[in-house]
Amino acid sequence: MAGKYRNLIIILSDQLDINSPVFEDFDKNQDIIWMAETQEEATRYWNHKLKIVYFFSAMRHFRDELKEKGYRVFYHELSSAKSNDRGEDLEAVLKKDIHMRHPDKLVVTQPGDFAIQERLTKLAKEEDLSLDILTDSHFYDTIESFNDFQDSKKGYLLETYYRHLRKRHGILLTSGDEPEGGDWNFDKENRESFNQAPSDIKAPISFRPDDITEEVIQMVRKRFDDHPGSLDHFDLPVSRKEALRLLNDFIEHRLKAFGKYQDAMWTGKPFLYHSRISAALNLKLLNPREVVEKAEDAYHEGDAPINSVEGFIRQIIGWREFIRGVYWREMPGYAKMNHLGAQHDVPSFFWDGDTDMECIHQSMQGVVGHAYAHHIQRLMVLGLFSLLYGTHPRKFHEWHVAMYADAHEWVSLPNALGMSQYGDGGIVGTKPYTASANYINKMSNYCKNCRYSPNQKTGEDACPFNALYWDFLDRHHDKLNDNRRMNFQMKNLEKKDDQEMKEIRSRARKLKKDWSNG
Ligand code: SF4
Description:
Elements: E1 5-10, E2 32-36, H1 39-43, H2 49-68, E3 73-76, H3 90-101, E4 103-109, H4 114-126, E5 130-134, H5 143-151, H6 158-169, H7 211-223, H8 240-253, H9 255-258, H10 278-282, H11 288-300, H12 306-330, H13 349-352, H14 358-370, H15 375-389, H16 393-403, H17 409-420, H18 437-443, H19 464-475, H20 477-480, H21 487-494, H22 498-516
Parallel strand pairs: 1-2, 1-4, 2-3, 4-5
Helix pairs in contact: 2-7, 6-12, 8-11, 11-12, 12-17, 14-15, 15-19, 16-17, 19-22
The structure holds iron/sulfur cluster (SF4).
């Protein structure tokens, strides 16, 4: 029957907010909400089991919240048996419902991923339906406004854009519109390491799986058992209520020391002073405005120092907004970039953490157990290793999306392919993030418990990062030599004599051969 419903509102897996603009004009008598768990959602990237549970459980909780509030929701659950739904993709499931419900129009919040937006647009055309794509209110900036800002600039620079957003939205400004604390950026005060084991950190709240989550866990155990990661520690917030509790817990207990130890790492401590809210934030269980407001309030009330509050807010309104803008401005070509011509697959221990390199083993404990690593483990351990090893940046990105609960394509391409692997040749970062074992040794206690020596460059006991680091600079000498920010490292490379370089190259070759043989 044509025109049975007015609008079919598509809610994607990462759009779980009842205050989203798609609900503003919602008429409960004429409109319906459509949500679907699909095989494709779990397998487009070879997703961590915990991530699959997280997405589907949060969706089911949101569906129930909507139903309680009187919304009519058509929801497709994946069942434990594949034969029940034959692994259909988003279009297949949606088309069936369009043919059954005959909506006049499709409405969706702008998808995070470029490809999903293209696919929905194509589907609407094929079905001869109009599709309203509404602005995503879970960002301070719009894509149009980011483009306007960027059009007047020569290149991308996070700091300029960050200050622009701070000024425009009046964030952490004095009454005279100056930055609070007398500076825009306290990055230099975000780099302390621990002298001894940190003992007074209150761990983030852990949320026990309820019946809905348990049901999804059983489904994922049966259906996606060959996927990576563990389900033994599922404890993420699956509803807005829980996400708010996690945010408040961070503001109260960990924000204060967050800034100082933002870059530090320690054995057996995956979360330290980090908030762990990113997964909930990117499913839109939280809005960045409330996150920033709470952090700013903590500063004004004297509960947290400026280096912590500014460092935290910089991640939200600086980095998160910036990379989203870059993603939409540079897609679709961005996903194909490989500036350094890297060709390796991610090594096998990136899936299970089974390696004698202690820094990687420790970082992977969080990834395998919680689908989480904090930003320095991501950038300066796992990302650094992958860069030096020569992993293809798109493969690293695919691994990154698969293994982190907070990673979506728009998050991961600029972060993983760009910032971490320098695959974009300097669009996001002005130089590759390279370092030897020295950095990891300075910022953690990992090297003390490692079978390798951080001080040796060659030989069986030498830290693999060292040979890989010099080998990386050597291999990419021509591409990096003109980069002003690489001057210091390239000068040091040039001081190495032929014999030392020969040993370094040989050690790097042997290590890579061993890893690529699994
Ligand atoms: Fe990592 Fe090397 Fe330190 Fe071992 S010695 S923990 S491999 S940086």
